[in-house]
Here is the input.
Amino acid sequence: MKHTFSYLLIAALAGSLFTACKHEQPTPEPEPVSTLPEWYWTGGQLGTTTNTATTCFRQPTPATENAGMGVQFSQGDNIAEKPFVTSASGRQAGLGPLYVRASCQHCHPAYSHGTSLVGMTSYNASDMGNGTLLVVYNPADNSYVPWLAGMPQLFGVEPFKAPIDPTMISMTWKQATDEHGNRFPDGETYELVYPEVRIPKEAFYAYNQGYRDGLIETEGYVVVLENTIGVYGTGLLDAITDEDIIAQYRKEEADGKLKNGLNPAFYSGGFQTSGYYKNDAKWGPKRFTYALTRGPLQDAAGANAIWNITNVTRSDRRYHYLDMKGTIYAELASKDKEVQDGFETYISRMTTKEAHPEWFGDDMEKNIYDYLTSKNLPAEMTDAEFTQVMVWHRGLAVPAARNVTDSAVLRGKELFTQIGCDYCHRPTWTTGSDEIRDPNGFFTSNDRLPRYPNQKIWPYTDMVQHKLHMENDIRTGWCRTTPLWGRGLHRKATGDAHDARLHDTRARNVIEAIMWHGYSTESDAYYTTQKFYELPKKDRDALVDFINAI
Here is the structure.
C-alpha cells in the first residue's frame, strides 16, 4: 500500500505534526482544538493519528514522520501486507518449510485483532483475517506439547507435510449461563458463548509417523484458541519504563485487592528469574503477549512473528521453527519416504551444493535432518527489509479517541472509574526516554527506529496478568490486561460483523466482554462486573459508548 500523508498542525496544543490519509479523511471530523481533552491523544503527541476511518490502524506516528522514516515505514507496510512465497529468492521469498500463516495480514486484518470465529465449525487457517491461533498443551502442567511448536503450523511446503491436518480440526460454540441467567435487572438479555476445539490424534503428523507420546495416545492434550492482538501502538508500550511497570506490580501486590493476586510464577515479591516466566534483569519485566513471554518490542511480537509465523530466516534467526523440542519433526520427516523422494528437488531449489554440501550427501535421511535442524540457514530476509518491518511495527500510530465531548461518553468515562474498571485497565502511563533495547543485538542504537520519549499515553492496561476464570479459559488462566485503545474501531477497520473481544474472540460486543469478566465468583473482576450489572440501562450504554470511543 502506498501511503501519502498530509499534516494537521495542532499549534494550540504542541505545535506537533499529525498525519492523516489524503484519500480518506477521518470520520467523524476532528473536534475543534479548543474542545479536545488530553485523553483524545491516546498515543500522546508523538503517537496519535487523527485518522479514525477504515485505514485507522495503518497510519504512521508523527514520530515516524518527524524522524524521516516515512519511506521505510511504507516499505515495511508492503512487506507486512503481502504474502510470502516459497521461492528461494526475490521479494517475500522464503516461506516454509512449515508455516503458520503466509502474511501479517492473514492474522492482523487491517492491523487490528483477528476477526471473530463465533459460530464457525471448522478452522479455516487460510482465511484472510483468521488471526486466532491454536494452542495445544498438557493440562497437567500447562506446558505446550513437545511435538508441535508453541504456535502450531498448519501448512507445509512440498515435500514436507503439515504438523496438523487442518481439515480435521472442528469447533463447537457452546452457550454459557451466568448467575443472573444472562439477564439484567431491567429485563435486557445478553448471550455468553465460548468455543470448544477438537483435534483428533490422527490429525497430527507426529502420531501418523509413529511418534508415541502419552498425551497423543490418550488424547490427553487440550486445545484452545488465542486471538492475535492489534499491532498498533506497541512501540508506545515499549517506551514505558521498567521502573514504572515494577512500581505497578508492587502497588497491586501491596493493595491486595484482586482475589487471585499476582501470578506467583511471574512475580512474588519480585520478578522470577527461572522457569517459564523468568525475567532477565538486563531487559526488565516482560510486557508483551497474553502470557507475558516477551520483553522489549525488538525481541517481541512482530520481531518474533515475522520469523516464526512464516519461517522466513534472517541474519539473527538462521534456523527453523518446528516444535517445542526442536528435533521431533526433523527426526520424523527425515525418515518419511515421501519426504526423502522429494527433498533433492526441494533443496536444489533453495540453495546449491557448493554453498551447503552438508545437505547434498549420499545419506538422504541425514541430509533432511541436518537441513531442518541447521543453525546456519541462508538469511532469506535482508537486514534492510527487517529494519523496514520494525520501523513499520514500532511506527504504527494509535487512533485518537472519538466523541470526546459527547455527554454519554463523558458519563461512561466517569463510570469506568467509579465501578473500578480502571484498576486493571489503568488509563494512562507516561513513557520514559525510550532507549531502544534489543536482546538479539540487531538494533544497537536509538537512531534506527521511531521513539516516543516523555509521552502521556492512554492504553487502558496495567501491563499485568490477571485471572477471570472463564469457561474453557486461556492456557494457565493468567492473561495480561489487553489494552483497550482503538478497539472500538475494529469493525470499521476490518469489516468484521463482531467486535472479536477477549482472547478467543468469544465476546461479540462490549456487553458480552464485560459480563464474561464476572462469570465466575473467582474472577479478579467479579465485583466490578456486578457493579456494572446493577447500573441502569442508560448508564450501561454510556459505559459501552466510552469503551467504544477510546
About this structure: The CA atoms of residues 100 and 153 lie 4 Å apart.
